[in-house]
From TrEMBL:
The chain crosses the membrane at residues 349-366, 386-405. It comes from Billgrantia bachuensis. Keywords: Coiled coil, Membrane, Transmembrane, Transmembrane helix. It holds the Pfam family DUF3422. This is DUF3422 domain-containing protein. Residues 199-226 form a coiled coil. It comes from the Bacteria. The lineage of its organism: Bacteria, Pseudomonadati, Pseudomonadota, Gammaproteobacteria, Oceanospirillales.
Length: 410
């Protein structure tokens, strides 16, 4: 059996929902937390509830005092969801338990989303969304008409985004999954929107980069004969800043795209239908959320396009520089060729002079030899000396010339 088979198979059950019956309050929090922050939150939960939390797991469902608590660890955020059955005669919107408030306040700096879902049934229903404090809410029938959901998407005094659900036909399993979809829409919507401030900041940076790149392009077009090195230096600095900007934002924009797809998918899974004259929940969310996603995608595309333009201009400048280097190399080679030709001519002249000088010395030696013989009393006739020493001298000079030629050949 493959060592990962069981783990991969159990991914089907990795994110179970909380199954419950109405009426109930669900308090949901999402924290933009790293591993250390997540571990600290679990430690505080364990200390508060008295139930051990498995820090190595991706999620855990804990039941105590009639409440159900679920925590989940995602790639870059963590969630806490507490289901509290609604007491008879209690207020519509109740504050969370004190211990949960303390846990959340300890992680307040990382809090991304706080959603309070009130699930009512037909018996506890007050008759209208306005009776629960909503003014001009958005609402939809979901789950094929088995439930209705309202929200005005305003934060209350406690910082909660409130959702009201009237369950008319969902069993505990479908109800748990439906509430999970609603919570995921809110959580992933907020996580996707994290890149909006970054996109606005980058928009100003990119405007300056575009102006700078345009100026460099104009200089490249107008100064064809100029030295490209200053342009290459300026362009390299611009490319470095663009790469730093891309490295800082690429992961965030990719996460936004992934989170947005989940939001769109979860809205489709609601299977919405209109309620009275209220705008549908999905329509209300997408009308404001989709432009955010498109704006971030446009900034990301603009950033990538600018980097590609800088890379193309860099290639053009490097081509110019390479052509200039090749022309310089050709000029150097021509100069070396001319120098070698001059040296060859000088060498030939030296070789000719060397043969003449050697011939002079050879015949001078012959002359000294003849004079020495005459001093010793040996008389040699001039025609005899010429007949013997002439060919010998010519032979010696010829051998020297032939030897020089052989050395040059090798």
């Amino acid at each position: 059996m493959h060592p990962q088979r069981e783990r991969l198979h159990n991914e089907l059950h990795a994110r179970p929902s909380i199954y419950f019956s109405e009426p109930a309050h669900l308090y949901h929090y999402a924290f933009f937390a790293d591993v250390q922050t997540h571990a600290a939150m679990l430690a505080q939960l364990a200390e508060t509830t008295g139930i051990a939390c498995n820090a190595d797991a991706a999620q855990q469902i804990l039941t105590f005092e009639g409440m159900v608590l679920k925590w989940e660890r995602h790639t870059e955020f963590s969630t806490l969801t507490l289901m509290v059955p609604k007491a008879v005669g209690s207020e519509a919107w109740c504050a969370p338990p004190t211990w949960l408030t303390k846990v959340v306040e300890a992680q307040q700096a990382a809090l991304m989303n706080a959603t309070l879902v009130l699930v009512e049934n037909v018996d506890t229903w007050l008759g209208s969304a306005e009776a629960y404090g909503f003014n001009d809410p958005a609402g939809s029938q979901v789950g094929g008409g088995d439930a209705t959901v309202w929200s005005d998407f305003h934060l209350d005094s406690a910082g909660f985004n409130r959702l009201l659900m009237l369950n008319e036909g969902l069993n505990a399993f479908r109800l748990g999954r439906m509430v999970r979809r609603l919570l995921e829409i809110e959580t992933y919507r907020m996580m996707a929107s994290l890149s909006l401030p970054l996109a606005k900041e980058l928009a100003l940076e990119l405007e300056g980069y575009e102006v700078e790149l345009g100026e460099l392009s104009d200089r490249n077009a107008e100064q064809e004969e100029a030295n490209p090195r200053p342009l290459l230096t300026a362009l390299s600095q611009l490319s470095a800043r663009l790469e730093r900007s891309g490295a800082r934002s690429r992961q965030r924009f990719s996460a936004t795209e992934a989170y947005a797809r989940i939001v769109f998918s979860r809205i489709e899974e609601l299977r919405e239908a209109r309620v009275d004259h209220c705008p549908r929940l999905g329509t209300f969310i997408l009308r404001r959320f989709r432009p955010t996603v498109h704006y971030c995608a446009a900034i990301h595309e603009r950033q990538e396009s600018l980097a590609e333009s800088a890379a193309r201009l860099n290639d053009l400048l490097r081509t110019r520089a390479q052509v200039e280097i090749e022309e310089q190399n050709m000029s150097i080679l021509n100069s070396l060729d001319e120098r070698a030709s001059s040296q060859l001519k000088i060498q030939k002249a030296v070789e000719g002079l060397s043969i003449i000088v050697i011939s002079y010395y050879v015949f001078s030696l012959f002359k000294l030899g003849l004079e020495s013989l005459e001093a010793l009393g040996v008389s040699v006739q001039p025609h005899t000396a010429a007949a013997v020493l002439g060919p010998l001298g010519v032979l010696i000079v010829g051998l020297l010339a032939w030897r020089i030629w052989r050395v040059k050949q090798h």
